[in-house]
């Protein structure tokens, strides 16, 4: 029974399947054959089927429950089962030798090379682990040949290695093989080229694809909306909601963005709000009972009282009290509150606009100083001998001699090359030599010295002897023009006090010392400047109300006061090297006068508070460059004026820490220098181009130090060597130095 | 520290050692090499006399360690380095010093005398041995700027010397000194320059001399001590400043060489008819006297204060308005560059002079109060610093091999004895 029951159940299941198969369109034949084969197999090895019994049993149970209602049907099925059983038994008996592929698939060895089993009597194992015996067959060539000759199905017989049996391909299998070989779809019924039915075209059709009528809710009004509208209507009725024309103004008017609106609005004010700085929190010292180290000693209290309020560490003196209730009222409370309020009120709290600029970008791209050689770099010589500060120096046009004047009234003339003093003249006992200047004319040998109210024209008898003699003869050859004298006499009656008298020195000790002419001015003369041709020279007499500048002519021994009025205190005057311009520097302005037209041609604004010295670029002498002027001032500034450019400084340089005393240009090299009370000389490269479109190139190249600062006075005068890139400087430390 | 393979050799035969290669540490300096050579010599000769040597690699003295020297010269440290050694020049010894009343602008030595020109307008003859002032002559009205011998053995007994002095009074004066009578007489006054005459140089034959002046010209004069045709008796000028009492004759220039744009500060003769001039216009010009034209010029960066030419090394040395002593090759013509910079001074180099018997040695005086003796093979450091002056050195002279003389703004003349023994062995 045990054996039979599962078999019957299995058969019912197969039958069921078969019944279902009848309804499906799947090919039935194969399935049937399979089923048959399965059944056969089940006969062979029924024990192996026990695993699957359970599942199929359940199916059977379900199915068996149904037929309880239809007992007749059940009877019929049982009869069918019995018939099939009989049929199967017959088949198994008939086809005992025959094998099927399905049974072979039960070989569990897997996909291995089957020659491994060549030496064994079996060919593998079935599901129960039992050996599957090899079919007995002799496979010699003769058999094969005979088979080939005899068997008409030999061509469609294949050998299955896993079972070791031959398999004759069915018609179905053959057609499948053929289709695969030809590259067709394996399913013969599948048509890959079915006509495409385009259900949803892009064209708009007259009739809908789906003719289903619209849903009711698509045309019934929404209840929710009805409720909402009702609420609105109610609100309108009650006057809560006002319905009118929408504001057309807003739409029609173009909205302009008010750029400045924000700056006055409350929001902007809040945005820009910067909280007030908080007062410092009180420390231990503010405690009513501070630690003892915070309590000041009597000395410290005295010191605190002596100190200025700014210097004090605390605004109060820390005090110790026994208890908080003993602390008196803070006496400065109101003052401090008031001061705080005042601070908050008066101190502008404003956001600073920060520029993010790379500091290196602000530095102009200038050539390197070593590419701008030559310029003086080191001290070469020191001219010692003066007993007082050397206020003024001047180099003669050949560059062989250097004249210097000191505060004790001594003029010395030095040999430049060796620092040898070749002449020493005691001009005055008391008064200082204010200014000294060689005549720039190479055919005369004259030195103008200002001391007190006098200008002394001196022939030092140095250098070319012929020139010195020629100078003397030139001066002696002067014969006063009587007519002019009469005229000047009549004039001098009017303005006798204004025109300074000339005195010619003909003989005596003074003559031997070299004195040739003495011009006495009404007040002390501060500066004397020669015209480039050496005939005219100008004297600056500060403090002389309206006649602060005098022009003297050497050959005619004439003097004139070119300005009827002087605006401001004249600091320095200068001749243009080759054009009839005359520069007058007052404290803040440099005025340029045209001497021919006798009018003011330009006024330069120096931006300085007190001009000390001016110098003009000698380029006008050699090249056709515009006029360039440097102006040194006591407020440490050196201004470069390009007069074609502007009446304001082209460049202002602040390289000195203290007042600038002197500035000068080199006659040949593109160099200029300024010397100041900080004891340093700043040498700069100042290249002026003939091309008027190109601005001057100004590069500071060297700071020369060496002079000592004495009584807050440093370098008092400086001048360049006329031919060499050397600079001389005189200082308050009684020395003159040469830098080369 | 790396070791170097060196091979020692010398041109001084008496110090030669065997031709071996030595391995010395790179840190070794002159002292170690000295020890090595002395050891080798003592092994050879069994003498205990020790002598100092200087060592040359690639014609430059070793002044630092060997490795530094090799690195700076860019030599290969792998190959064998040839190190030449020669006996070290002995330091010049201060011999005499004597005081003058004023600054000494120029100095010349002869076998018996020392001649100085000074800022008190005087030329002075000193006895070289006793350092006594023999005679002082005032022939100028302004400071004497230079002095130059034109004939110092006029007669057989060498009692007469003649020399020329130039001055800021625009003249050059030819003097004769007779030592037998101790008489100094100014023979001729060479007039022609219009400004201070700065320098004078006499050719080797002593037949002519040239002067350079602040008027930027060079003038060539005859140096004969007998009146020539073109000389004429001097007309008594308005300024009678010639105190020598004797009438001196005026001599005019043979040739005038204009071309410099600034003061001609130094002159030297290259050969019998070529003169080399240095000027403040930064150029060195070479002139042909016969044709009176400029042959070539070399342009520097600094004004030239002094100049000298050596017939041994055929180089011109210049002292400039900076701290360098420069060597030039006059044969390389135009566009020549400075061959070598000798750098140790810290002031202007006012005076330079080649050694008369050595192609490598020269002496220079500077505004930094220092006289330095140089070997051109050691450009970074001088051989010796002769520190005696307390003020600017204005002039140095090394006309004779055994004496270096210098004068300066401290009004003192210093003479230094130079030991020429070793040098004579090499070159003599």
TrEMBL record, chain A:
Family matches, as InterPro entries: BOP1/Erb1, BOP1_N_dom, WD40/YVTN_repeat-like_dom_sf, WD40_repeat_CS, WD40_repeat_dom_sf, WD40_rpt
Residue span of region Disordered: 1-109, 478-499
Domain BOP1 N-terminal per the UniProt entry, residue ranges: 117-376
Protein's GO biological process: maturation of 5.8S rRNA from tricistronic rRNA transcript (SSU-rRNA, 5.8S rRNA, LSU-rRNA); maturation of LSU-rRNA from tricistronic rRNA transcript (SSU-rRNA, 5.8S rRNA, LSU-rRNA)
Entry GO CC: nucleolus; nucleoplasm; preribosome, large subunit precursor
WD repeat ranges per the UniProt record: 383-424
Keywords, alphabetical: Nucleus, Repeat, Ribosome biogenesis, rRNA processing, WD repeat
Database matches in SMART domains: BOP1NT, WD40
Superkingdom of this protein's organism: Eukaryota
Localisation: Nucleus, Nucleolus; Nucleus, Nucleoplasm
PROSITE patterns named in the record: WD_REPEATS_1, WD_REPEATS_2, WD_REPEATS_REGION
GO MF annotation, one: ribonucleoprotein complex binding
Biased composition (Basic and acidic residues): 60-93
Extent of Acidic residues compositional bias: 29-59, 94-104
Classification via HAMAP family: BOP1
Subunit architecture: Component of the PeBoW complex, composed of BOP1, PES1 and WDR12. The complex is held together by BOP1, which interacts with PES1 via its N-terminal domain and with WDR12 via a high-affinity interaction between the seven-bladed beta-propeller domains of the 2 proteins. The NOP7 complex associates with the 66S pre-ribosome. The PeBoW complex associates with DDX27, BOP1 interacts directly with DDX27.
Family the UniProt entry places it in: Belongs to the WD repeat BOP1/ERB1 family.
Chain's role: Component of the PeBoW complex, which is required for maturation of 28S and 5.8S ribosomal RNAs and formation of the 60S ribosome.
Protein name per the record: Ribosome biogenesis protein BOP1 homolog
UniProt source species: Ciona intestinalis (Transparent sea squirt)
Taxonomic placement: Eukaryota, Metazoa, Chordata, Tunicata, Ascidiacea
